[in-house]
Amino acid sequence: MQKEFKTLRNKRVLVLGGTGFIGSNLVNNLIQLKSQVSVVSRTGNIDVPSVSHYRADITSLNQIDKVLKKKYDIIFHCAGQSDRIRYIKEGWQDRRSDLEGTLNVFNSIRRNHLRTKIILLGSRLEYGKAKYLPVDEKHPVNPKEGYAIEKLASVLNALSYSNLFNIPCVILRISNVYGPHPLFQYRNYNLVNYFIDKAKKGDDLIVYGSGNQIRDYIYIDDLTNALLLSAIKINKKGEIYNVGSGRPIKFIDFITLIAKKAGVRVVHKKWPKYNLFLESGDYFTNIRKITSHINWTPKISYSEGIDLCFSHSSDNV
Predict the structure, then answer these.
(1) Quick one: 307 exposed, middle or buried, by C-beta within 10 A (0-12, 13-18, 19+)?
(2) Which CATH architecture has domain 3-178+217-246?
(3) In the prediction, which pLDDT does 147 show?
């Protein structure tokens, strides 16, 4: 851990969505840093005596009000449904979680006159199909499907509240994240982790189409470092930052690395309807802004990240 992280010792930190993939890894880091950690989630468990776990739904203003009245120095908003195919089929529940939930969090901060910094996780999908590469924060936003539209709506509302009510808020638009995780727990939205799980079981890896689309993947430890440093170092409200590895790689090349590590095959198949609709084309991230503002750079190469995924037990995050 970097020396700057020492400032998080004894800070009162709340992680919304703290039992999900990103949230649970963030919680583990905060525990190591000896922060006073609280977690809100609808599902999952945190079996750590030093962590306060609240079973609450952020789409309920009353429930989130009760939690936020305890007052926190920092809130990491990692909550939300991320299964994009389910979103197309069942949309409403996701919409409530991503948009209404975010509005409730900011309303509660405003109503309770809280002085807390909030780090909101956005998505690179808010940009839609890239007009140029690498994609920087000045790139126009043009999300192509419901999940990304609701993500962008949440971000725009957060920026509005931040400006109107002077709420310190940082938006991080995140690329595809991967890393060690419980087996098959994140199957429907974290494609890379799903492929790693399949490879660990010895299954063939199914790639739709050629797989030649360019992607940007970030290892979970690099992401959590960016989250923590953003909470410590970024003091301007309403700033948006792209977070990714900044290293372009073809999807097929990344999946081939996984397949070779596990000794399994890559099999190409025709695109299914919903998956083809969600395909956003080439994308990789320009990370100059966040690198210059918080002195952060991703450390884990793609081959190192895959090795780490295979060396960790599937029972642990």
Answers:
(1) middle
(2) 3-Layer(aba) Sandwich (3.40)
(3) 84
